[in-house]
Write a structure and sequence with these properties.
This protein is an alpha/beta fold. It folds into 3 domains: about 260 residues, Rossmann fold, CATH 3.40.50.980; about 180 residues, Rossmann fold; about 130 residues, 2-Layer Sandwich (GMP Synthetase, Chain A, domain 3), CATH 3.30.300. It has 20 helices and 26 strands. Strands 2-1-11-10-12-13-14-15-16 form a 9-stranded mixed beta sheet, with helices on both faces. Strands 4-3-5-6-7 form a 5-stranded parallel beta sheet, sandwiched between helices. The termini are far apart.
Length: about 575
Amino acid sequence: MSESVTSLFDASVAKFNERPAFQFFSRTKNAWCTMSWLEVSKTVARLANALKHLGLSKSDRVAIISETRPEWVICDIAIMKALGVVVPIYHSSLSDQVSYILTDSAAKIVFVENASQLKKVREVDGLNLQRVIVFDDINEPLLANEVYFEDLIKTENDHFVGAKLDKDDLASLVYTSGTTGEPKGAMMTHDNFLYEAQVIERLGVLTKDDVQLLFLPLAHIFARVLEVAWIQTGHLLAFAQSVDAIVDNMAVIRPTFMAGVPRIFEKVRAKVIDKAQSSPGIKGRIAKFAFHQAGVLAKNPKARGLKLCISKKLVFDKIGRELKSKFGGRIRFFVSGGAQLSSEVATFFSLCGITLCEGYGLTETTAATCLNLPWALRYGTVGKALPGTEVKLAEDGEILVRGRGVFKGFFNRETETKEVFDAAGWFHTGDIGSIDGDGYVKIIDRKKDIIITSQGKNIAPARVENLVKAKSPMIAQVVVVGDKRPYLTALVALDKANANAMVSPSQELSMSELSSNTAVFEEVKNAVARANAALASFEQIKRFHILDREFEVGKELTPTLKVKRKHAIKIFSKEVNGLYT
């Protein structure tokens, strides 16, 4: 058994050799291309040699700021081969966030994708970077410590000999998303990644015959685990051109597996619902009837009867056939992770005959802790704990985790590390949940996000927010407010494209115009009312405010599109206070 990610990679190269490893779109050739395992290995070796010649020592940190692309994976493996520690930084990170992570990790070398990312690095004061390595050509001269990726590796040997790594050696510093404060560098070992990859293969989630379409940012632990699972199984890893091109790429790549965050699946559902309900005459009325029945089922999984059967036959079966065709016709199942998936979205895909499995995990648990498997799905839960992982509840309902996937601790933060581990080695996740008699785990909300009203009622805001979002394609995000307040209110961020299409299809309106539009207000009002109908009185939203701009990554959203709830409430404090006057 491999002792490190790099030894696992070498074993897979020897096993798969000339078999295609990557599929990607080449902008220079304007065509889809492949790279074999042997070709990938040679490029990795050249880069590892280059890093060695730059003086990279064991445990030196090397950062990568780029969108998901083949070079990212090549850098990841090469840095580890050269005994370095990989520090991923989201390509959407703002300059101050880049500065914080580069400084906190004391990175010596940085890989950047393009001029935009290079600019962020150049703006950081006080860094002592040995090299900044650039993937794409830029339209200005490079500085003395900057070099292009191709120039760096072109004279290097395509065979690399390095020191052996141990399974407990540090592989990566993965910074948490910072939803409740400054990001912390989670120390991930080689064994953390190996464990996840081995379990994924053992459970049959991915096999050597799969084609995986990857679009998730590799700065996220979820995508990194899928990368190592690719090394473990030897399947074909295809890179999406962009998030916007996912569906178009699926038609070309014809993947058998794809993972995403809930917002991606929410958008698919919202687009389908909007199109179907906009159909004229009887078709539109039938669609509305069918989606209403889906909503009833999402609220009560036992609510299956004649009305639902008719809805499935007349509406959902057709939608399912169309979606499967658009997805390439070979998809076995999707996996959703990174945030809670609403029951409405899960129910929609289920009725369409498309399997969408929800999983649960954190950066600190190397992504997957629990996973619903296609052959043992239980909607409304995140599945059972992975084999080899223990999960239990603390007295207050907090989910505790122990096992090979749990991280080593926070980089240079001994106090914070001690705070999240107890004497028995259980990691305290900060999530409140429940576990049923069969071992299926249900996530209620983040412990720190639980709202306690002035009436003493405890409310999980995520459930309320997901309910409202599911009621209208026009709504992108909802932030429920109510801690120490007499009742709940909400900030509503619109999906500009959907809102515009619904109220003014022939003319583009500004966000300011949309947020004050009477039809928009009525749509949001009805969505809130329909959500409230499924809630206890103390959980209901009494007032709401429609914001005049979309939420932005780096401000109200994390790079994985999770809402920074407390930060958003602070930014829009004037609007919040107005809801209580």
